[in-house]
Amino acid sequence: MTTSDLTALSTSEAAAAIRSGEISARELVKALAQRIEQREPRIQAWVTLDIEGALQQADALDKDRAAGRIQRPLHGVPVGLKDIFFTAGLRTTGGSKVYEDFVPTYDATSVKRLREAGAIVLGKTATTTFAYRDPAPTRNPWNLEHTPGGSSSGSGAAVADRMVPAALGTQTVGSVLRPAAYCGVIGLKPTYGRIGRGGVFALSWSMDHVGVLARTVTDAALLLSVMAGPDDADPSAANVPAPNYVETLEDTRPPRIGLLRGLFQRITQPEAWRRLEEAARQFASAGAEVIELEQPPEFEAALDVQQIILVSEASTYHWPIFRQRPDDFREGIRAAIEAGQVLPAPAYLQAQRARRHISRAALSLFASCDVVLTSPATGPAPQGLGNTGSADCNGPWSLFGFPSLSLPIGLSEDGLPLGAQFSAAPWQEQRLLQTARWCERVLDVTLVPPQDPVRS
After folding, report:
1. Which one of 196, 289, 343, 366 is at 20 to 30 Å from 32 when CA atoms are compared?
2. Of the listed 10, 96, 110, 151, which one is catalytic?
3. Does the annotation mark 175 as catalytic?
């Protein structure tokens, strides 16, 4: 294979090619390193690269394969990690000056499971400061003057730009699905607690989700299968049985899809919503049952409730070091910490109570459908790098802890990616992935950024 052929491989394709001996893990790492060397000066998706370490891992895994040792699900496949995941011996900055020289002594639980599955850590991808609003320097590979989204900025851009087949991200409000939608890749946020958060910098511990950015639904299913499960380092990680999502992926039953307008249509730009409706019509023409859903009135309070919880928990988590080094915190995270300090405790408790009430109302949506269809972003990636775009389309599902997935559906008139957001009831990742895979086949959309990204 040529270098371009190697960098175009999805996670599952790369794993299969290494398993068969068609390519070696070393060849793949070298091809990706060459791609990064060419593209990184413009995209700025990475904070720390460990190419030498990745090559050493690749050589060891290639020896295992040559010796006929047991092949693992991700044997020899490189991954990127958002720079809030602890990595033993590899710098983890959290996108902040506070931790610019921090080198953990252990891996996050999710990273440990990736390594145990045979994955190779290529490096750490850029993030907004502590996964909040202060933008990373990363640019959108479709147009360098547009944001790639946040806070998993580097992960979304690196996967879209063929620098790495898949990367980990996190989502507290919209930080997996939004960059996925803006960059034209798959973004999966499972149910809260499905993947443990041990060894991950927190923003809001009752809403933080570990998620993945990948090129296909199959890739997302593979990565989830590897990482799902209890976590001794995270008491919120649930001990709920998880199937092999790849083996159960190809369900041929046409799905029942509920199109939810209300808040989502109101905040989404007309072109993006029109394209979402076109995709829904394609699903219906292919045999899906597409029904109109009525938005529960409780949804309207979801974003306000979420913000109260977020600033309260972020402030509690970061306050000890913020008191010592306030000048080292950027404007966005500083404002959240300070707001949380003056927020009365009853407001936080009332917000948590309202959260349970709104979540119960949202759960009723799934009585008549497998998944709920909404927009994953208010439109294509906005111009300018001073903000990361609105996460309002993702926020309710993160507040509820329900699993969601962003699927590319095409390009806007300006040549920027657009997506569809599917959400399911808690612990229904299997049905969510099956539906997304069915819709992925119907649309048959693969988005590849231009070789020479334009500037507006």
Report:
1. 196
2. 151
3. yes
